[in-house]
Design a protein that fits this description.
about 450 residues; alpha/beta; Rossmann fold; 7-stranded mixed sheet; 19 helices; about 15% strand; binds pyridoxal-5'-phosphate; lyase; EC 4.3.1.18
Length: about 450
């Protein structure tokens, strides 16, 4: 798993952009491999997304029963799309930036059960696994009312099986809470610097939390080893899991309904820009896949990464994907955006989205705090620092030369830019304890 030792000097010589990454400059990278026929040759298609959505639908009555907070939505785990015009005004007032189009926030930060975007992929993967083993054991049929999963005999059945995951925090929360609810034995491997409150929430849910010195990569490796050595054990592989990826992609189907409800058109005259915070890549990659399947070339997806951990940019720009990590170019990967503190991107995701992704931009930690405070003051929305990387894009891109060239190259007219819609995908925040949130907020208050 260790990377072949790339020499930093050689990498920078071959890819001059890496010099700026090394100096932690905020920058915008446009993906040269974006293709207008990008949807055609993918190994997953729209039918896969629809099958995955049908699976969540089968589980919906059970979810509504065991997580009463989801009952009102019929056991479907979804989040609001809200207009953030006051945020736009506040940003324009604080700087000379002129922002085009209408701004929206997709509030996965407020998803039920786990309070982050991981409530999509993580929960989907556990449900997929639970269904698979219950079907194989003859305990469940597809036509059954899945409410029976809450019965004691199912708890006993799942207790013979275990789930293991390595996580910076939020994935562990969603996998841990869902697995424990079904009755699985579940272990979450975390790096020692993962937030204490996340470990506390998990332990109070009966999850076995194992802490590791060192970074996320090490936590994942330990998890993988433990899982392989254990019978009836499923390892949730954040870097390679197709189920996680599909779980995220389902978001696009619901977003489509929300766009219609809000009279948001997506066509040549009304381009849609979506800004997605990226860690290992599964969440933003799955959502990009879903959105591109539904809306094609009039939607433009950009990933956001912290300047200290731009692993996807590094992997895609060099074409080395998961063979290279940010430490190879002299970065430490340490950032307040703990959901994005990943040194090595998923190779599976990087390659998959090569023809779909418009670009990636990087954001400094202080900007995340600044925007956290502006968003709280203008819209009353509570997000964690990672999530603000999405809002940062709306501001940063429209003021970047690279983006202006992209707009020209995509033949997006000035009028279309004026009609454009921008969705900042908020990825976490609801569950952050107030005391911790106040500390974030204070760091963004202008003296
Ligand atoms: C996990 C996470 C992301 C990114 O998801 P990846 O699948 O790791 O790319 C973004 N924001 C938050 C808050 C997260 O927890």
């Amino acid at each position: 798993m260790n990377s072949p030792a790339f020499s930093k000097t050689e990498l920078i010589k071959k890819f001059p952009l890496l010099e700026k990454l090394n100096r932690q400059r905020e920058l915008t990278w446009i993906n040269p491999l974006l293709s207008p026929s990008g949807n055609e040759k993918l190994t997953l298609q729209r039918a896969d997304i629809e099958q995955a959505a049908a699976r969540l639908q089968r589980f919906a009555p059970y979810i509504a029963q065991v997580f009463p907070e989801t009952a009102e939505q019929g056991g479907i785990i979804e989040s609001p799309l809200v207009a953030i015009a006051d945020f736009k005004n506040a940003v324009q007032k604080n700087s000379d930036a002129m922002l085009q189009g209408s701004l929206w926030q997709k509030c996965d930060s407020h998803l039920p059960i786990a309070g982050s975007i991981k409530a999509r992929g993580g929960i989907y993967e556990i449900l997929f696994h639970a269904e698979k083993i219950a079907l194989a054991a003859g305990k469940l049929k597809i036509e059954d009312d899945y409410n029976i999963l809450a019965n004691e005999d199912f708890q006993e059945f799942f207790a013979q099986h275990s789930i293991v995951v390595g996580s910076t925090g939020n994935l562990g929360l969603s996998i841990g809470i869902m697995s424990a609810k079904l009755g699985f034995k579940v272990s979450v491997h975390m790096s020692a610097d993962a937030r204490q409150w996340k470990k506390d929430v998990l332990r109070s849910n009966g999850v076995n939390v194992i802490e590791h010195e060192g970074d996320y990569g090490k936590a994942v490796e330990h998890g993988r080893k433990q899982a392989l050595a254990t019978e009836k054990c499923h390892f949730v592989d954040d870097e390679n899991s197709q189920q996680l990826f599909l779980g995220y992609s389902i978001a696009a189907l619901h977003l489509q309904k929300q766009l219609i409800e809000n009279n948001i058109l997506v066509d040549a005259e009304h381009p849609l820009f979506v800004y997605l915070p990226c860690g290992v890549g599964g969440a933003p990659g799955g959502i990009t896949f879903g959105i591109k399947q539904l809306f094609g070339n009039h939607v433009h997806c950009f990933f956001a990464e912290p300047t200290a951990a731009p692993c996807m940019l590094l992997g895609m720009h060099t074409g080395l994907h998961d063979e290279v990590c940010v430490q190879d170019i002299g970065l430490d990967g340490l950032t307040c955006a703990d959901g994005l503190a990943v040194g090595r991107a998923s190779g599976f995701v990087g390659k998959f989205i090569e023809p779909l992704l418009s670009g990636i931009y990087t954001v400094a930690d202080q900007r995340l705090y600044d925007l956290l405070t502006v968003l709280q003051d203008s819209e009353g929305l509570k997000l964690e620092p990672s999530a603000l990387a999405s809002n940062a894009g709306i501001v940063a891109l429209q003021n970047s030369q690279e983006f202006l060239e992209y707009v020209k190259q995509q033949k997006i007219s000035l009028q279309a830019m004026a009609n454009s819609n921008h969705i900042a995908w908020a990825t976490g925040g609801r569950m952050v304890p107030d005391e911790e949130y106040q500390q974030y907020y204070q760091k963004g208050v202008k003296s």
